[in-house]
Amino acid sequence: MSDPPVRWPLPVTVGPYALLALLAGVTVAIKQSAGASPLIDLVLCALMAAWMLGLFTLRPAWRERVPVMAMFFTVLILLTAILVVRDPWFGFFTPAGYIYAFRVLRWPWQPAGVAAVAMVSGTAQAYGVDKTTPVGLITYVAVMAANVIPMCGFAWFARRSAQQNDERKRALEEAREANRKLETTLTENAALHERLLAQARQAGVHDERRRMAREIHDTLAQGLTGIITQLHAAEHAGDDPAEWRRHIEAATRLAGESLSEARRSVDALRPEPLRTARLGEALASVAGRWSALHEIPVQVTTTGTARPMRPEVEVALLRTAQEALTNVAKHARATRAGVTLSYMEHEVALDVRDDGAGFDPARLGDNGDGSGAAHLRDSGGGFGPARLRDDDGGGSGSTRPGDGGFGSACPGDGSGDFDAARLRDSGGGFGPARVRDGGGDGPRTAHLGFGLIAMRQRIEGLSGTLQVESELGAGTGISARVPAEWAES
């Protein structure tokens, strides 16, 4: 759709007609007083008026057509020049010519049109000069220059001013557009900021809930499990007061320790075993109490050069060891267990292994959503060579499960090979329950629950890995590896 024609001011559209009518009246008066006929002049005036009326006044849309306006201006100036030659007072019509030149002509034709009008005006002004003499010719040229040069210079400055105005308008429009975009962006950023704050708050709440869930599981749940176990044992103590008292005292001690650990978890403090001891010593203390409580021998070994690590790393490894030992006591029916802490150049590894019943990975339970066996896959590697050692030799022998040792890092025939039973957490969760006994002497169905999920969350939160290995009748092993991040001295 084309733009509507520009509306011109009324004096600009009507002024040329009024000026032409005035000059025609002057011509009639002068001609009649001189006894000459004004007919030709009146015909020229009428023709000029008709030309302006037909091509300009009555055709507003044509004013934007450059070729039409160029023809209109050219004929108009020719008619004006003829009138000026006949009657010099028609030089007073040149202001109308300047108006048309500045209004209808486009650059670069505008200076030429202005110069033509100036020459007509100069001709009228020099009408009485004798152009046959050198002085008269010089005077005529001077009059022409006095009209053409200033008017052409004015046209150039008018052009520059128009360009600057256009540039200012474009700059203002660009600034307005930029302000609109900036306002839109600020509004979007404010909304995004609010969403990010809400998501950060939700993430913080979620993380805190997960932390408290892990802490409750690692303190209250494990403590209550131990208390229940001791109370059941006290019920079966029969008429043996010493045995009954021993189990009650153990349950009371577990209750006090669990309460203390729960308070420290609420305050996000380090576990009590790590408050004054290094990780290796804390593991030995936890394993010693666990062994005394469940009457299962446990060997704790530390390899490599022990160095203090960041508190969150030590807490994660300690909680992993506690959860692994709890699972041994609850499910494995083991006679021995081993805990190995290995300090290596780029990582720290924690291995917990038992010689219990183990489980068959091929019979992993499924919770109906595919989060059972699909989430335990071949890790492509084991725990490393002989990280759990026999306590009668202190070395790294190849004692097989069943002969009383922990030589091989992988359950099986002692050769270090382990295929179908090598499992690891793939990051998708472990299923709803835990590794539990199916009853009798048959194989156990493996349902892996929150304990392993909590271990996985802790270890993977430190960019580490958690691996689980098991085989029916050959025990179970858990290996946690985290990058070595030493505490600042």
- Global morphology: rod-shaped
Give the strand content: 5-15%
The number of helical segments is 11
Radius of gyration: 52 Å
Q: What is the succession of H and E elements?
A: HHHHHHHHHEHEEEEHEE
Span of the ends, CA to CA? 78 Å
Average pLDDT, all residues: 75
Return residue spans where pLDDT drops below 50 for at least 5 consecutive residues: 364-447
Structure summary, number of beta strands: 7
- Spatial strand sequence of the major β-sheet: 1-2-3-7-6-5-4
Write up what this structure looks like.
By secondary structure, this protein is α+β, with helices and mostly antiparallel strands. It contains 11 helices and 7 strands. The chain has helices spanning 10-34, 39-57, 66-86, 94-104, 109-125, 134-235, 241-266, 272-275, 279-294, 311-332, 450-460; strands at 298-303, 337-343, 347-354, 376-377, 422-425, 465-471, 475-483. It has a 7-stranded mixed sheet with strand order 1-2-3-7-6-5-4. β1, α10 and β2 (337-343) form a beta-alpha-beta unit. α1 (10-34) packs antiparallel against α2 (39-57) and α2 (39-57) packs antiparallel against α3. It is rod-shaped. It starts with 9 loop residues before the first helix and ends in a 6-residue tail after the last strand. Residues 364-447 have low confidence and may be disordered.
